[in-house]
Amino acid sequence: MILGRVTQNALVRTLTASTGRLQGELVRAQAVVSSQKRIQTASDDPIGTALVNALRGESSRLQAVLENVGFGQAVLGTQDGALAEAGLILTRAREIAQQFSNDTVGIEARQAAAEEVAELERAMILLANTSISGRHVFGGLATGAAPFTAFDDPGFDPATAYTGPADPFTVLSAPGQEFRLTTPGDQIFTPALEALDDLRQTLAAGDSPDGTITALVAAGDRIAEERASVGGRWNRLNARDAEIRDGLVSVQTRRGSVEDADLARAISELTQIQYALQVTLTAGRALLGASVLDFLGP
Question: For the chain, first and last CA: distance in Å?
Answer without folding.
Answer: 10
